[in-house]
Amino acid sequence: MKKVITAVLVTSSIASLSLAFALGADEATSFKSAVRESKLLSLAAREKAIDLGYEAFKKKVYKESFPGGVYIVNGDTPVADEKELMDFYQREIVAEWKSTKFGIALGQGATTQLILDAPNGNPAAWDNVSKRNLTYCISKTFGSNYTKTLQAIQSATQAWEAVADVRFVHVDSLDGQCDASTPGVVFDVRPVNVGGEYLARAFFPRYARPQRNVLIDDSSFTLKPGKLELAGILRHELGHTLGYRHEQTRPEAGKCFEDKNWVPLTSYDAFSVMHYPQCNGLGDWSLTLTQKDKLGAACLYGPASGSSFKPDSCNSI
Ligand SMILES: [Zn+2]
């Protein structure tokens, strides 16, 4: 069994190496992190994971080592506890493998895009009150990186606020006591050191307060100048906080499939800010919002005031 798994690892590292030439070291690091999870969740790897059993699967899933740390799947998606990880294993590994084995089509077909978190088909987004009061604090423990973080968060929140009727509110009076249990905010933004396992990770609207964190790894502050920068990473992560899933889980991507717990908001968008470039994405590492990202967000949450938006365009994006 170990030998088979090794073969999978070798295949991934070859892909990683070739991409390193095309992208540069920082993007390659991000790629490595994403591939680590996507390879675990590839259809072939699912079969191996079933052979090995849950305990062996659990050992392969990265778990944050700090107090309150959670399991991470799909590159940057937290799984709150062991019960949820077992559910994930049953649902996304075992059930998905059975589905494929018996020829049931994955995903929602070829006409469907920006996609929304929807466990068991139930869409999970912010309600009309919450969406305008997405309060957060930024931990002062960022130290010398605090100002850089603040500016990047503001840039990322403005990108989403410019296109949809959502409002992120920085409660700076709580920055000095900003952690996973801070009351009075919807989520906290804190530094972590996970050694580049991920650049940052966030949460979905349905998560409970202790898991509603945007955690930024130290490696995000040492990126070499290039297209991948903190504001772009946070545009992607804040997309998750609004409920958006990775675009590459759509069957049209043909790579990095995650699961079927989502509903489409737009047609497939290979350029989406929510699409990992290394998963057959066509966007680059600047991670900017595409026209479809903008329309999808406006159709879900309503348009930003003053934006030129035609509601009937939601029928054809
Ligand atoms: Zn992500």
TrEMBL record:
Signal peptide range in chain numbering: 1-22
One Pfam family, short name: Peptidase_M10
Keywords annotated in UniProt: Hydrolase, Metal-binding, Metalloprotease, Protease, Signal, Zinc
Name of the protein described by the UniProt record: Matrixin family metalloprotease
GO terms, molecular function: metalloendopeptidase activity; zinc ion binding
Domain of life of the native organism: Bacteria
A biological process term (GO) from this entry: proteolysis
Coiled coil: none
Domain Peptidase metallopeptidase as annotated: residue spans: 122-278
One CC-aspect GO term: extracellular matrix
InterPro entries membership: MetalloPept_cat_dom_sf, Pept_M10_metallopeptidase, Peptidase_Metallo
